[in-house]
Amino acid sequence: MINKPSDKEKTLLEDRLKSDKVEHNAYQIRYYESQYKPNMQPAITAYILRHVNRMIEHAKLDTTHQILEVGAGLGRCSMPLLAMGFKLTCIDISQKMLGSILKHSPNLPVHTAGIDVEEAGNYFHEKFDRIIGFFTLHHLKDLEACFRGMASVAAPGAVIAFCEPVAYNPLYYLQIAFTKGMTWKGDGGIINMRAGYVLPVMRRAGLCNARCVSYGFFPPFITNTVFGSIIEDKLERIHLFRWAHAFQVFVAQMPV
Questions:
Q1: Sheet with 247-253, side-by-side order of all strands
Q2: Given pLDDT bands bounded at 50, 70 and 90, which one contains residue 3?
Q3: What is the pTM (predicted TM-score) of this model?
Q4: What is the pLDDT of residue 13?
Q5: How many CB atoms lie within 10 A of CB 221?
């Protein structure tokens, strides 16, 4: 017979989880605010546009949608979307990083809020048609709680979609090991970016039609060359090479 935890044990567990989340978020803020990260700087490049266009395709983004971008950071992917006419509300646990978006887009339809996505329901009164993110999920402590937070501000039928690394691609782990400034504690969540892990979490948070679509092969220094994007486009058409994809989009939907 399994004994149920007492109220005291439940309280201690909840306090520990809250403490772990606070420590995790504090580390993530230090990890990104304390040093210059070239790969996060806003720039409209072939590499960035590849991810942005995949998001537009799989999340079925439209310029009439109210879009919430989770973990927007410095606005690396926000800027191209804004330039294309999409209306964004960008959130991140680092208000300092969000300042970059406002600095670079003073006349564009963007709002920012320095909040934890788990608390989105306490902050926003409106509902969003789309909730998106780029390379954000693997930095979050409790994915299920985060998806519940998103669901609390998602309109019926809203699409929730995230571009992420493919956990099975070994190049990411080499990148973490040998790139100055990257740490396992900061980016190790990549190991969870698997369909078998993320999609069940989405479903437990109340989302439906959860699926994953992989794409792409090259890092920025190749994709941003003259022929990099052309070669990558040709490789993507070859089904045989899908095992080597480096990126993926996790997509799910709110029930209607």
A1: 110-113, 87-91, 66-70, 128-134, 154-165, 247-253, 208-215
A2: low
A3: 0.91
A4: 47
A5: 10
